[in-house]
Amino acid sequence: MPLAACIDIGGTKALIGFVDADGNVLAQERYAMAPGRDPEELVNDLADKTRALAQQSGYDWQQMAGLGYSTAGMLDVQRGIVFASPNQGLWRDVPLGDLLKQAFQLPVWLEMDANAAAIGEGWKGHGAGADYFVHVIIGTGVGCGILVHGEILRGWRGTAGEFGHTIIDPHGPLCNCGGRGCLESLVSGPAIAVRAAQVMGGAGPLEEAVDARAVFAAARQGDQAARQVVAETVDYLSIGITNLIHLLNPQVITIGGGVGVGGADLLMEPLRVAVLHRVGSWVDMQGTQILTAKLGEEAGLIGASRLVWKGTSMGSLF
User: Fold this and answer.
1) Does residue 15 surpass a pLDDT of 50?
2) 8 Å CB contact between 127 and 145
3) What is the structure's pLDDT at 88?
4) CATH (residue range 130-294)
């Protein structure tokens, strides 16, 4: 049985797995990711880990039809070059496709992480059947993948979908891209943690190690500072989603990523209400769905596998 070897690299994690042609994840392993690693060192390490997982899972490397690789950053998927990846140590013009082909000895297909997750959700998740679909990822960073009739909307240089770097507040906090007030600087996991640290005081749940998960846990316990941070996050995100709806008019928007899924019980219903109050009267919100992503962390792996299964019929990119 042929398999797709798949890797999904986020800001703080690497997910490795093997996926069959029906989109079933048959084996996977998660690793913490340290930012700032040398690209060649990272690729060689991932190749060793992926081969080890294949051996542990009883799969022969000869079964691998190709490698689907999803990564945070801006890249040219046709040439396999990462233009920039702020969450991975400010990579610039890295020939990632060539490095992967050499290390894995497989045909390689690359994709930006949000696009790969959107492909996965559009294939096996809530985006299936939607002609106009947007998948938003909120985690260490913020991004989105835009599918129009099942195809990624890329823009002329392939960097469309950088939703996290749309400006919500021009006088807002500094973003890792160098701008101010980007959506990512306001609703990502690190941004939530920063705001929580600014508003917390006295004894309470937020006195412990502050991260987005701790903020959500404290909000569930009734902590007012945490609830304030969550409410601000919803407000900022609703502005971004409203802009997205006005610009693209999608049928379905799914919210994924560690923050999007981990805080869904606190974020999603207030978000829907806030967006409903912000959108223009011409928008059909009865027919516009804002949903929690279905596939969770596996969306990127499943999307990466889809690249392999579609690509093997057309030939390798690298």
Assistant:
1) yes
2) no
3) 67
4) 3.30.420.40
